[in-house]
Design brief:
This protein is 47% helix and 15% strand. It has 2 domains: 7-198, 2-enoyl-CoA Hydratase, Chain A, domain 1, CATH 3.90.226.10; 202-248, Lyase 2-enoyl-coa Hydratase, Chain  A, domain 2. It has helices spanning 31-42, 74-92, 109-116, 132-135, 143-151, 153-162, 168-171, 186-198, 202-210, 212-217, 220-236, 238-248, and strands at 7-12, 15-20, 50-55, 98-102, 105-107, 119-123, 127-129, 166-167, 179-181.
Length: 259
Amino acid sequence: MTAKSPLKIERDGPVLVIGVDRPEKRNALNDGVIAALDETFSHLPADARAVLIHATGPNFSAGLDLSELAERDAFEGVLHSRSWHQCFEKIEFGPLPVVAVLRGAVVGGGLELAAAAHVRVAERSAFYALPEGQRGIFVGGGGSVRVPRLIGVSRMADMMLTGRVYSAEEGAPLGFAQYLVDDGVGYAKGLELAHKMAANAPMTNFAVIQALPRIAEADPRIGYVMESLMASLAQSAPEAKARVRAFLDKRAPKVARPD
């Protein structure tokens, strides 16, 4: 008998939709989920232009599946953590922009997964926590690198030391998510954003994913050179030339104030 896949994978035109599908476990992440995500992001469809990550049921992910936490020596523990790093790096630094739709528990490893996405849409039911301190463990899926970039080191330390939980409303202005929407509409909003990303020039999307975070962390003198190189590469692409010409010929919409 074939084991049930922990992921539900679908297509919506140019958007690859990936759903973590363990609702009976509050979508807790185990080795099977990580392996399936790694395999999926290692072999993205050639015609996909953006990715949407969501989860079935009322929770995005309650974190590491502690029921499968095996006894490991220190070296085995390092290798296990690195397997998560390698998977999430393929999400953050892959060829396609990734949107994550968050609802319910976005806890521990679930927050680490969300932080690897480029854009996060949170429904009002979402809440954020890092309970590793109370479990006697430490983040191992890249959280100590990615989460402080979103919310700051001191805020993350507070969450781990005290068990503090942030609601979706509290978390949005702090950087946990870029969008806050009503319950039940997060998937539609996330899909809308993914389609907008899919309509961009692929070279521009690639530059935003690959170069922007590295430029932001580089010595400014190196960052400026990297920026010049990426700007030159992007604008030299035939699609970029066609898009600029369309704007100059008044065939493309101008940026307008939001309603």
